Amino acid sequence: MAEKLKLAYFLAGGCGGCDMAIVDLSESLVDALAHLEVVFWAPTLTDLKYKDLEAMPDKAVDIGLYSGMIRLGEQEHIAKVMRRKCKVLIAYGICAALGGIPGMGNMHTKDELFRTVYFQTYSTDNPDGIAPQTKCVVDGKYELTLPEFYGYVRPLHHVVDVDYFVGGCPPHHTFVGKILEAILTGDLPPAGSWITGGKSACDVCERNPAARGQERESIKTVKRTIDGTPEEGKCLLQQGYLCLGPLTQGDCGSLCPKVDIPCRGCGGPIPGVKDFGLRAISAIAGLLEKEALVDQIPSPVKLFYRYSLPGSLLGKKAVRSENAEEDRNQPDDKA
Amino acid sequence: MKDRPDAYYWKPNILVFACNWCTYQGADLAGSLRYSYPTSVNIIRVPCSGRVEPEFIVEALKKGADAVFVGGCHPGDCHYKEGNFKAVRRFNLLKRVLTSMGVEPERVRFDWISGSEGKRFAEVMTEFDETIRKIGPNPLGRGGNG
After folding, report:
1. Is B100 on the interface with A (CB under 8 A)?
2. Which residues of A98-121 are buried (b: 16+ CB within 10 A; e: fewer)?
3. Which residues are within 8 A (CB) of A3 and not within 5 positions of it... i.e. 6 or more apart?
4. Do A312 and A276 meet the contact criterion of CB atoms below 8 Å apart?
5. Which of A168, A173, B24, B128 could form a disulfide with B18 if both were Cys (CB 3.0 to 4.6 A apart)?
6. Could you tell me how many CB contacts below 8 A there are between chain A and chain B?
7. How far apart are CA B138 and CA A324, in angstroms?
8. A228-250: per-residue pLDDT in tens?
9. Distance from CA of residue A126 to its chain's centroid?
10. Which residues lie below 8 Å from residue A262, measured CB to CB, with a gap of 6+?
11. Contact list, B59 vs chain A (CB under 8 Å)
12. Is the CATH code 2.170.150.20 the one for domain A5-99+153-194?
């Protein structure tokens, strides 16, 4: 038998759901492990330390899976180490690929987050007004350190070069199986692309009117998920539930609409879409019957950018910096 | 230079997406009739305001535009029947997103300007330029590669 492929896995700013998606492979994982050797899996599955990964020779690992977004100095450090040690680095799961749920933190600045979390909430007891520091000396002699909390959430490809992206929150385990198979057989797309079947969630959705020979209708009302119960078998968008299936990768098999939950776009954008949220605005707004419906959509940023804010064109909240004055000082060509 | 009031020597960079059938003709008419409008205005002709995707507007703001204007035909006048209706829905939704993300809502504007409204084109551009001069440079543009 050929030599086993070496696999490294790191969970950064994520919830561990992507780790679970691999474990969910159950028996197929046992078969895959005949061809895979886990050389690093922190912090969930193995007891290996960062220094073990750092001690490996460069390019010693065949496949690196990085899940979770990057907010802390520690996560950034391991991302750089992984890039050095791994021949192929995969942003695994939507957090690593585009920022994911924690990416919505980019709607606020670091100062706003700290003020709320460490000072303003009712249950906070912080009379000295201490916010997290990167260094602190305990008992006058022990210097303790914490990783730096950066101003914004970043997806993996903003920090290091990424070979492949995998969407999903988490990626569905049958799809993870296909990814592992593709890796083991070397049947991978060109570097820098998403690993996906390329079909949208609508394409594989049972509610798709096109698949049922029905006409596409415009959206006549805007409903939230809690408003009523969707009609069985009818497209959620046509019933007013804002489903993002039209532009989301359908490698999940369109599971959420099956159980009356509109797609929220965790799969990542289908090929050809540069910015998920902006294209979602375009798609949904174009389907609205009346102009007044635009204002009925609750918190559009959290709806359209639920999984993709840090990796989008906007990326983070725009802040007027102190240098705003400097920028005004560009001379007019006529002055 | 530095002791002059800011507005005197900072010139905004305003991008105008003008529909080929109405707003662009309006701009053309403004020129023919010798109406003057600010030099900060840069026009890009598009087939229809419905062709302006939200990506265009955000990319412009990221790459150095201080403000973006989208001009379409008056309701009912669209050459493609409903392109301008789709455009205004997309635009209003995008404006809500931009406002939540810290971009001043005044920085993006949508208006109907027909091919016969040369004077109105000049007036709207002058007014828009004044608004942008008051609110100053675009915070998104810094750190962009424009």
Report:
1. yes
2. bbbbbbbbbbbbeeeeeeeeeeee
3. none
4. yes
5. B24
6. 113
7. 9
8. 999 998 999 999 999 999 999 99
9. 33
10. A225, A236, A237, A241, A242, A243, A244, A245, A256
11. 313
12. no
Helix and strand tally (H, E) in chain A?
11, 10
- Indicate whether this complex's ipTM tops 0.85: yes
Who among B4, B101, B136 is closest to A318 (CB)?
B101
End-to-end Cα distance, chain B: 24
| Residue ranges covered by each domain of chain A | 5-99+153-194, 107-145, 209-304
pLDDT, tens digit (0-9, with 9 covering 90-100), for A50-106 = 999 999 999 999 999 999 999 999 999 999 999 999 999 999 999 999 999 999 999
- Which residue matches tokens 């379409």? B72
Lookup: tokens for A174: 């049958």
Judging by beta carbons within 10 Å of its beta carbon (0-12, 13-18, 19+), is residue B42 exposed, middle or buried? Answer: exposed
Instruction: Kindly report the pTM of this predicted structure.
Output: 0.89
Q: How far apart are the first and last CA of chain A?
A: 76
Considering only CB atoms, which chain A residues are within 8 Å of B98? Answer: 314
Q: What is the pLDDT of residues A263-280, one digit of tens each?
A: 999 999 999 998 999 999
Q: Which residues contact A35 (CB under 8 A, 6 or more apart)?
A: A2, A4, A5, A184
Among chain B residues, CA nearest to A300: B97
> Taking CB atoms and an 8 Å limit, are B89 and A329 in contact across chains?
no
**Portion 20-59 of B in contact with A at CB < 8 A:** 39, 53-55, 58-59
